[in-house]
Design a protein that fits this description.
The complex is a heterodimer. Chain A contains nine helices and no strands. By secondary structure, chain A is mainly α. The longest helix of chain A has 37 residues. Chain B is mainly α. Helices cover 79% and strands 0% of the residues of chain B. Chain B has 13 helices and no strands. The longest helix of chain B has 39 residues. The chains are: A mainly alpha, B mainly alpha.
Chain lengths: 269, 314
């Protein structure tokens, strides 16, 4: 980083720590996340069980580690579909323009006005709810329009810039111009958009799983665990607290990174 | 006036488009409805008979036209899992969801506009406030909902989590219950609106007319309220209309958390039960609500900003 940027560093620290924990969770958890009676039932947070245990005596910390892994990997996969397809569509329409551009952008306007969760629910009810693959597909599809819009604006604004014109005059091909000359210069717009997209994906996946239409057991996600935790609010409030705080942690950390990125670019300009 | 007509017509066209797309999407899978209803008892003859009974054997535009006519005459078909007319099933739920979203909307507007103005005029602790703002956006409504039920429901016993009081018997109880649901729904939205208003106002504050107004001896607060707010408002109104869309989406989740028998909960149950006539009706109703908010916002902006009335861009 060129200038010390508190938001960026704080966000990176928060996200890095969580990412390390999640990676650890893929290989090792303190207890088997699905093992019944890993400890006493409804045991409050202690040194042996950092986040306590649930109604089956399962270790909540181990479950949260696994759940965060599921949520984060779905969000990343969603982001990959949404960002790659969206940016490709946005880059092509933004660079070439024309009637296809007009048409796609009108369609885009209509789609982005639609609440994304509602759209994802429609898509998933058509695909068949409850499968991890379908959740990724539904959310990925839903996230395409917003990325297309952002990247279209970014690419269109570069179309008439002098260095692009000169590259064109030197005989560079369109794919080369798009990938080598334009893409790096859209980073100030696209990178913050990626952080926002990741957060939206995490929240959307968690909401859908919370509703019971997203990921279902055995691979529990944070959203599903929260809905489980709600049923035990009297007996084990720490379950809801631990799970929810991890979602907040994830979204907050990445949000701070995005804020830092936006500020850095404002200072450069 | 011409503008108003054009905007209303455009709104109607969007509604038609949205309803047709929804209808077509669900028709694509309606073959499955017959198969799903019959299950293992399905034979080609019985499938064909059921499709004829459900009217699935006719061309799509004809079915859409009939469905649209039915929509306005209150005949939305019959729910496949409840065996009840969809309209009868949904009518009491619509009112509840409408109230929930209106209360949330009022809450967001009333809290975020003063907060955004206040925040825009201040430079101290800017970093801390931005971090707080990010935190507000990071808390999902279903988590806030669970926290609120725990503190105010389980702890303070202001309401019983999971038991929505009947508004006719206990109006105050129902209002309190809805208010808590609305708070859970509003927090991330308030954070976003404040952020949006703050950056719009700050951009406006850097303009020449503000400097002129202040150098002529006007009070800073007054300039903010009388001049800046007027110019900063149109984008915020548009943003609030988009917020309506997000509120509708959020209500689906929040109704689940608070066990409010509204449209959102019905939607989730119906998706699980593959009750397509109900899902389709709810999606169209929610979409119409969103389009209506967007149209209203454009009309309000047109009153607020004379430049729009002359056909220019703001």
């Amino acid at each position: 980083m060129k200038r010390g940027n508190g938001f960026f560093i704080a966000g990176l620290a928060l996200t890095g720590l969580l990412a390390a924990l999640i990676l650890l969770g893929f290989f090792w958890t303190p207890y088997d996340p699905n093992a019944m009676a890993a400890g006493p039932k409804f045991d409050g947070p202690s040194l042996a069980h950092w986040m306590g245990t649930d109604n089956f005596g399962r270790d909540i910390f181990s479950r949260v580690l696994k759940g965060a892994g599921t949520t984060a990997s779905i969000a990343l996969a969603t982001l990959a579909i949404g960002a790659v397809c969206g940016c490709l569509a946005g880059a092509l329409t933004g660079y070439f323009g024309g009637p296809v551009d007009e048409l796609l952008m009108r369609l885009n306007d209509a789609l982005t006005a639609f609440p994304s969760i509602l759209l994802a629910l429609v898509v998933i009810s058509i695909l068949e709810p409850g499968k991890k693959r379908n959740v990724i597909l539904a959310l990925g599809l839903v996230f395409i329009p917003s990325f297309a819009r952002v990247s279209r604006t970014a690419f269109a604004s570069l179309r008439e810039v002098n260095y692009i014109k000169s590259a064109r005059l030197m005989g560079a091909s369109s794919p080369r111009i798009l990938a080598v000359h334009m893409l790096p210069n859209t980073a100030p717009v696209l990178l913050p958009a990626l952080t926002i997209g990741f957060n939206n994906a995490v929240l959307a996946e968690a909401s859908m799983s919370f509703l019971g239409i997203g990921v279902t057991p055995p691979d529990a996600s944070l959203g599903y665990m929260l809905s489980e935790a709600q049923g035990m609010l009297f007996a084990a409030p720490w379950y809801a607290a631990g799970t929810g705080l991890v979602i907040v942690w994830m979204v907050f950390g990445v949000g701070l990174i995005g804020e830092g990125l936006r500020r850095r670019d404002r200072e450069v300009l | 006036m011409k503008y108003v007509c054009r905007r209303v017509l455009a709104g109607l066209a969007t509604m038609l488009l949205v309803s047709f797309l929804t209808f077509a999407a669900f028709s694509l899978i309606s073959g499955d409805t017959a198969t799903a209803m019959l299950g293992t008892a399905a034979t080609p003859e019985r499938l064909a008979a059921l499709r004829a009974e459900l009217g699935l054997d006719r061309p799509l535009p004809v079915r859409y036209g009939e469905w649209l006519l039915g929509f306005f005459s209150g005949d939305l078909g019959v729910s496949t899992s409840y065996k009840q007319p969809v309209w009868e099933l949904l009518a009491p739920k619509i009112r509840l969801t409408l109230w929930l979203s209106l209360v949330s909307f009022a809450l967001i507007t009333v809290v975020s506009i003063p907060l955004g103005l206040w925040s825009a005029g201040r430079r101290r602790f800017e970093g801390g406030r931005t971090a707080l703002n990010q935190l507000g956006m990071a808390v999902p409504p279903f988590f806030t909902g669970i926290l609120l039920s725990w503190v105010f429901g389980v702890g303070l016993k202001w309401f019983v989590p999971g038991q929505f009081p009947d508004a006719r018997q206990d109006f105050a109880g129902a209002a309190v219950y809805l208010l808590f649901a609305a708070v859970a729904l509003s927090i991330p939205r308030i954070a976003m609106t404040v952020r949006m208003l703050r950056s719009t106002v700050q951009e406006e504050l850097g303009k020449d007319y503000v400097r002129t107004a202040i150098s002529r001896g006007n009070d800073r607060g007054q300039v903010l309220r009388r001049h800046v707010l007027k110019n900063a408002l149109p984008p915020v109104v548009t943003f609030l209309a988009q917020t309506m869309a997000e509120i509708v989406a959020g209500s689906i989740v929040v109704e689940q958390v608070f066990v409010i028998p509204g449209l959102g909960r019905m939607l989730v149950t119906s998706i699980g039960g593959r009750d397509y006539p109900v899902v389709q009706a709810i999606v169209v109703i929610l979409a119409l609500w969103v389009v209506l908010a967007g149209t209203a916002a454009d009309l309000i902006n047109q009153r607020l900003d004379p430049r729009l009335r002359l056909g220019g861009a703001a």
